[in-house]
C-alpha cells in the first residue's frame, strides 16, 4: 500500500454519503472526518441530517456536534483542526474517510484554502449593515459589478459567501477570484474522491422524503428552541430560516415546508455543480453495490492511481 490515503466521499444531500462512509470505515477498519459545516453544531441535529446515535456508534466520527452555534467557527479554523486530526489518526491508520457535502470545507482539507489578504473588519461590518438595510439582492448586484466571475461561481444566495467575496474586492482593490488557486501547500497524504449521484428526479424525490421525515422527527420543535438565536450565521441555513418565518407569522407551515424542499433541491444542484469540477472523482450511482465501490477503491490504491 502507498503512503497515507484519504477517501473523500462527496455528492448532493440525501444521496447516501453517510451510509457509504460508515461501510468504508468498517471495510478499512478506519475512522471518519466530517466535512459537513452544518453538522458541526450540537444544537442542530434534525435539520442537518446529522448521523444518528447508531451511526455514530458504528464508526468513530470526528467534527460532529463539537461546536455551538454561538462559537465563531470558520473554514480556516476547520482546515487547521482537520489537518491536525488527520496527522494524529494517520499514525495508526493507513486509510481514513472524509464525508460531507460542503464543497469549500472538503477542498480546504484536500487542496488547502486560497491565500486572501487581511481585510479591515469595518468593511465587513458595513456590508452586514447593508445586508440588513438594503437586502441580499443589493449586495449581489454590487458583486456582479466588481467580480462577475465570483458572481457566477459562488453560492450567490448565501449572504456569508457574498459578503466574503465583496469584502475582498473592496478591501484589496482586486477581484475575489484573482486570489483563487495560488500558492497552495502540498498535502502529505493522497486522496481518492468518490462521488454518489442519481438522476435529478430521484435526488429531488429523496430530498422531499427527507424533509418530510425531518418534520416527523421533530424539526419544528428543534427550530422553536433556536428562535432566540436566529440572528446567528449558523442558523441562516436551509431548514431553519424557513421555519423561523413560520414561527414569526410570515408564512404558513405548509408554505415553509415547501420552501425547505425547494431550497434544498437548489442546494443539491449547486453541490453537484461544485463537485463535478473535480475530474478525478469516481462517480457511482447511489444504488451501486458496496462491493463494487470497495473493489474500485482498492484497485486505485493497489495501482497507486491517486491524486
Automatic annotation (TrEMBL):
Substrate binds at residues 13-18. It catalyses: adenosine(37) in tRNA + dimethylallyl diphosphate = N(6)-dimethylallyladenosine(37) in tRNA + diphosphate. It comes from Pseudalgibacter alginicilyticus. Belongs to the IPP transferase family. The record marks 102, 124 as: Interaction with substrate tRNA. Coiled coil: none annotated. It holds the Pfam family IPPT. Monomer. InterPro entries: Dimethylallyltransferase, IPT, P-loop_NTPase. It is an enzyme of class 2 (transferase). The keyword Transferase applies. Keywords: ATP-binding, Magnesium, Nucleotide-binding, Transferase, tRNA processing. PANTHER family: TRNA DIMETHYLALLYLTRANSFERASE (PTHR11088:SF60). Its EC number is 2.5.1.75. Residues 36-39 are annotated as: Interaction with substrate tRNA. One of its GO terms (biological process) is tRNA modification. ATP binds at residues 11-18. This is tRNA dimethylallyltransferase. GO terms for molecular function: ATP binding; tRNA dimethylallyltransferase activity. Its cofactor is Mg(2+). Catalyzes the transfer of a dimethylallyl group onto the adenine at position 37 in tRNAs that read codons beginning with uridine, leading to the formation of N6-(dimethylallyl)adenosine (i(6)A).
Amino acid at each position: 500500500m502507498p503512503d497515507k490515503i484519504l477517501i473523500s466521499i462527496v455528492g448532493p444531500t440525501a444521496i447516501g454519503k453517510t451510509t457509504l462512509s460508515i461501510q468504508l470505515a468498517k471495510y478499512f477498519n478506519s475512522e471518519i472526518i466530517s466535512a459537513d459545516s452544518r453538522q458541526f453544531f450540537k444544537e442542530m441535529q434534525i435539520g442537518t441530517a446529522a448521523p444518528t446515535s447508531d451511526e455514530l456508534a458504528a464508526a468513530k466520527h470526528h467534527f460532529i456536534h463539537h461546536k455551538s452555534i454561538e462559537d465563531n467557527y470558520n473554514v480556516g479554523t476547520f482546515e487547521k483542526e482537520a489537518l491536525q486530526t488527520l496527522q494524529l489518526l494517520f499514525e495508526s491508520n493507513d486509510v481514513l474517510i472524509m464525508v460531507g457535502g460542503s464543497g469549500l470545507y472538503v477542498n480546504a482539507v484536500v487542496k488547502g484554502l486560497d491565500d486572501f489578504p487581511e481585510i479591515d473588519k469595518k468593511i465587513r461590518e458595513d456590508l452586514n449593515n447593508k445586508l440588513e438595510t438594503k437586502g441580499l439582492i443589493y449586495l449581489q448586484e454590487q458583486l456582479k459589478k466588481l467580480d462577475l466571475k465570483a458572481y457566477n461561481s459562488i453560492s450567490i444566495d448565501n449572504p456569508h459567501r457574498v459578503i466574503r467575496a465583496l469584502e475582498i474586492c473592496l478591501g484589496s482593490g482586486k477581484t475575489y477570484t484573482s486570489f483563487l488557486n495560488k500558492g497552495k501547500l502540498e498535502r502529505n497524504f493522497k486522496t481518492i474522491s468518490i462521488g454518489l449521484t442519481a438522476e435529478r428526479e430521484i435526488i429531488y424525490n429523496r430530498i422531499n422524503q427527507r424533509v418530510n421525515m425531518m418534520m416527523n422527527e421533530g424539526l419544528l420543535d428543534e427550530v422553536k428552541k433556536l428562535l432566540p438565536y436566529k440572528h446567528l450565521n449558523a442558523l441562516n441555513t436551509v431548514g431553519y430560516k424557513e421555519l423561523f418565518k413560520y414561527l414569526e407569522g410570515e408564512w404558513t407551515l405548509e408554505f415553509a415546508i415547501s420552501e425547505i424542499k425547494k431550497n434544498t433541491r437548489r442546494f443539491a444542484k449547486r453541490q453537484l455543480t461544485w463537485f463535478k469540477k473535480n475530474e478525478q472523482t469516481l462517480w457511482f450511482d447511489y444504488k451501486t453495490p458496496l462491493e463494487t465501490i470497495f473493489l474500485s477503491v482498492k484497485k486505485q490504491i493497489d495501482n497507486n492511481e491517486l491524486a
